[in-house]
Amino acid sequence: MRLVTWNINSLRLRMDLLRDIVETLRPDVVCLQEIKVDDPLFPLDDCRGLGFDHVLFKGMKSYNGVAILSKSPAQPVALPDWCGKGDCRHIAACIDGIEVHSLYVPAGGDVPDPDTNPKFAHKLAFLDELTAWLPTRSGAADRLVLAGDFNIAPLETDVWSHKQLLSVVSHTPVEVEKLGRLQDSLGWVDAVRHFIPPTERLYTWWSYRSPDWQKNDRGRRLDHVWVTPALKDGLRSALVARECRQWTQPSDHVPVLVELDP
Length: 262
What we know:
Layout: E1 2-7, H1 15-25, E2 29-33, H2 44-49, E3 54-58, E4 66-70, E5 74-76, E6 90-95, E7 98-104, H3 118-137, E8 144-149, H4 162-165, H5 173-185, E9 189-190, E10 205-206, H6 213-216, E11 219-220, E12 223-227, H7 229-232, E13 235-240, E14 256-260
Parallel strand pairs: 1-2, 7-8
Antiparallel strand pairs: 1-14, 2-4, 3-4, 5-6, 6-7, 8-12, 9-12, 10-11, 13-14
Helix pairs in contact: 3-5
């Protein structure tokens, strides 16, 4: 299984880029976040035209939204309504004996204080609810993939400056601790860092505000693919498609590819 996760930042706007990514990376499964399209307007025929006969999506106008595109049959998985918000941040399907989750964790706003910033409080509550739910559904022996925009860069080498970003949302200690608890919930394996050592700087997101993102290279690794321990031995490769950030009208995130033998 070749799986790609990508925060596409508007599916209809970047359908041509998705087509290029599919042609280049040849994925069997694509997990998308921030599709930003209501379900009645979802470009289903276009996605099927890329070779994905099985498409699941949960969208809303202008914000959020997730999707899974699969070449193999995909059986939907029932999920809770996280934090009771109905904001279309999580979708899952059973594909070739693997339960694949496409996840979009709330960004959390600008102020890392849950008492004064409701968006940050939502982010922490979302992570708490997900962490508590996963062990009740599955055990470490199960075959699960959790992929998407987690909106947290946990390692010092996942950000351009650990010291300067300690108080910036996405790299604060409380977020890193929450993500660590989520990872511990099922012993999740960070599939990308399984191949790319934690000592190596690695980013998947660069702000649109940067006048020259390549020269400044002030990125963060916000996009992740985790697998349960039962799939660890099947991991074959991982790739962060950094070159996609320089394409015309790109997303601020780049695709992440993980290949595994089911």
